[in-house]
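Q: My hope is that you can spare some time for a protein that puzzles me. Underneath my words sits a plain record pairing an amino acid chain with its backbone structure tokens. Those tokens are not coordinates but codes from a learned vocabulary of shapes. Thank you; the sequence and its tokens follow:
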Amino acid sequence: MGSKALAQAWLDGEQDYLEHCQRDHEQWLPPKERERLLERDEVLFSDYAAQFLESYRAADGSQLTEASMRKKREAVAHLTGFFDGMKLSDITEGDVNVWLDGYNDGVHSQRHAYQTLKEIFAKAVREGIVEKSPCTRPNPKLPKSKQSDIPAATQEELELIYRAMPDYCRIVVYLGAVFGLRISEVCALQRRDFDFKRGVLHVRHSLSRGKGDVGELRLKGTKTESSNADLPIPDGFVPMLRQHMTELRDKAPEAMVVPSRGGGIMNPNTLRGIFDGARKAAGRPDLHFHTLRATAITTAAVVGGTPKKVQQYGRHADAEISLQLYQRAADRGEKRLADKVFDSLVAPERTPKFVRTELATARKRLQDARDRVQRLEDELEALESEKWRRKPVKATGTAPRA
């Protein structure tokens, strides 16, 4: 067919399309727009989801950590397992609801996958590939965390767990319970993070792995911006921390505070396993390492911290003002709060000096109690004597003799 014939055929097709639009009251679209829509209708969900992963960024434009990207890939894998082979534009609200109702891999996984599906379709709407998202149902509700029902650890229980831990890593019990550190933050601590001169612990790192969330552990930034903080070190905690530092083989500033047996970064799962054995030996099989963080925050509230101070002490992500540099860590009110948390949770070392002080205190309390007993006995005797003197004489009915 020649060029003239091709051109005429194209014009005839355009004329038919125009008449179709006029007859059925449809909006006329130029040829390029019609071609784009035709291509759009052919986009497969699996292809678009793969593209979504390739270009995914956090809200601030930064790349996600390898651990977060692994979870995002797992979510997409759940989705493509159901929607594979379907065109993006063909997926309806009913299809999404069937997937939601048939999901049986746990509510946490379902919630994350559904949130990812919403993000995929939100991107598709912005790019004009679909007119609206078929994800209309709210996110599945998470069950109440069972950890929130676990009672905080007492001073006696913490000491039992501490004694049941191996010498080289038992300090983690109080690092978690006093400072409210997460287990990955504890494993990421280096010697240089402890500034004993100023009395400050610098929380700067957590842990991650290499690409694909595999490979050796390495230091990374903290979980949230508010987690990156300078915490006041309670005065009573300093001797215990210094003793632990003295016993470490590696004296370099970048040496790990809680190293693995072979040196280097302690695997949080390994530490969690050691802790689990100690908690059972202490009679608290229900207590998780993360409960130590809850213990710190709860104790801060119990000893009198204001809601704002407690929120800052726990380094919550939604804190209005997070802990800043040394100026905030040195704040006297916060320092007193840290001291109170330490005193409430850590059993003091029973040195001769401490026992003499405790004995003197006990003797004084005993003498005070004896003095109070004597005062009460004197008071009771006086009250009974006065009652006897005031007792009225009973009438006999006869007149007195002259």
